Amino acid sequence: EGLKKLLSDGGINQFILKKVPVGHALVFPMCEKCHTSNPVTPKYEDGKIFTSCSNPDCDIEKYEVDILDTSRDLAVHFFIDPIRDKTVKPNANIHVFGGDYSAVHDHANGDSTDFLYTKVGKVIELMRRVSKDIPDFLVGPTFYARDGNKMSKSKDNGLRIERLKEYYGNGYVEKVVDFISYVADRGFKHIDYQVLEQKLFG
Ligand SMILES: [Zn+2]
């Protein structure tokens, strides 16, 4: 229902990504049969998504999905944080984002460097449209892992809490707080694995 409310707001999809055609929505359903999600932005009207299966080996062609049909899987990217924070209890009081959220998103919005057009700015704007009462935001620095990539839950290349516990015992919370203070005091935006290693295990 939160998603339906957001999508009823004209222009919301174009605010997120300028190239989205009017009458289309950044909501990507999965084919019921083969679970392929068509990457083409689908048509959207009155709570229904109209798309087709993009898998050439699947015999499903055009299909429609009601966005209130909870038995269907939908990929919603930008909408997920605002909806989850504001419509699922307990509501979030604080939302922590990775450093890449402070970057301007979709330069097609002009070469604006306005906060509104950063990833976090867009998520905040979406939240405001769902509810007046929005959580506090904390945009952390971007951490780089030993493999040179950004640390990410999805890549699982970060530092696990178990390892810190193993190393420091129950004192690990204090160590983490010390490290966060060190980072915050210096206003670091990017942190390499070596800094982490030196400060936490040096
Ligand atoms: Zn299919």
Question: How do you describe this structure in short?
Answer:
This protein has about 200 residues and is α/β, with parallel strands linked by helices.
Description:
- The protein is an alpha/beta fold.
- The protein has three domains: 76 residues, no CATH class; 62 residues, no CATH class; 58 residues, no CATH class.
- Strands 2-3-4 form a three-stranded antiparallel β-sheet, with no helix packed on it.
- A hairpin with a 2-residue loop joins strand 2 and strand 3.
- The protein is elongated.
- 16% of the residues are buried.
- The mean pLDDT is 87.
- Zinc ion binds next to loops.
The general outline is elongated
Structural class by SSE content: alpha/beta
Backbone CA Rg: 20 Å
Strand order of the largest sheet: 2-3-4
Could you give a short account of the major beta sheet? Answer: 3 strands, antiparallel
**Overall pLDDT:** 87
Count of separate DSSP helical elements: 7
Determine the fraction of residues in helical runs and give it as a percent range: 25-40%
Tally of domains: 3
Runs with pLDDT <50, length 5+? none
| Head-to-tail CA distance between termini | 50 Å
Ligands and ions found: zinc ion
The number of distinct β-strands equals: 9
Strand content: 15-25%
Order of helices and strands: HHEEEEEHEHEEHHEH
